[in-house]
Imidazolonepropionase (Microbacterium luteolum), 388 residues
Amino acid sequence: MSATLITNIGELTTNVELDRDRCGTVHDAAVLIEGGRIAWVGAASEAPDADEVVDAGGRAVIPGFVDSHSHLVFGGDRAAEFEARMAGQKYAAGGIRSTVAATRAASDDELRARLRGFIDEMLAQGTTTVEIKSGYGLSVADEERLVRLAAEVTPEVTFLGAHVVPAEYADHADDYVDLVVGPMLDACAPHAKWIDVFCETGAFTVPQSRRVLEAGIARGLTPRVHASQLGPGEGVRLAVELGAASVDHGTYLTDDDVTALAASDTVLTLLPGVEFSTRQPYPDARRLIDAGVTVALACDTNPGSSFTSSMPFCIAIAVRDMGMTPAEAVWASTAGGARALRRDDVGVIAPGARADLVLLDAPTRIHLAYRPGVPLVERVWKDGVAVF
Ligand code: NIG
Ligand code: FE
């Protein structure tokens, strides 16, 4: 088995907590990769021999980003909606229905080509693990198609049949929920690991959301929930009660939400691209972290509320406008995302973990926030293979 040594790393973020440094920072470090896994981590001066040696030139290495929230299987785009929003129009979840129409009209091959394009775009920006949701099909056949296509590119597939009520069920939403928890779940569960619901005014009520999540749990899926994006509500507490791995958005959190999250294993995944592109207020990550909540950062790549796939962009916003330190933001977008997906083999650079690493063209991870918009990703390894 051939081994690769990355050496002369000026600043290595391992995420293996060390002397109260959650990022487990090691200076003048080296990492040995073998068989797609991390084989050794330590001081460059003590590094073992290898078949191939990569000189990091004193620059920073971080774990590959773990983007735990995206909607990458869709047709069309909504640039005009974004333009109108920037001119003052409010974001409304109803826009989802126009993407549903474009998605239903697209062939499998069209959706697949687009999806693979997004995966490549993400790899080039350092994202090596991505979760993908369905939710732009909203019929049994179309939702099955979306989870099946998503499963071709990631094991982290989420069934989000309960994204919004499709137009044809507008006056009888409960019948749509019957469809979601019945035939749609039957068709989608074999391709999925997670069940999600958009629990929000204008999407699904708390009792409807509970039905969806409980049906998913009964089929062996683990919940994750979209909640408190457009206003405060009970979605966060429902997610905590049902043991969700993550509750996402959290733009409008009450003190009770924060208390419930802090006492739970549920991660709160913040999605700064959404507030950026909907002109909503940025959530206060400082308040959450200080209260003891585990926070992740993700892009929520989708054609409506957040059409960025750049974790560095989200990190820059989180540091500039949400009260996170650069170290916290980098942790949240790597180890935090891994927690949100209940994974311990990614988001960390430690022996046994997957060899998913990013070499930055920068001396420190701080540059991810300090140099916003600058392409700092120099090289990316996924499962030990240089993919960028
Ligand atoms: O995560 N909140 C609901 N779903 C997406 C938005 C989808 C859309 O606008 O197309 C989100 O923001
Ligand atoms: Fe989303």
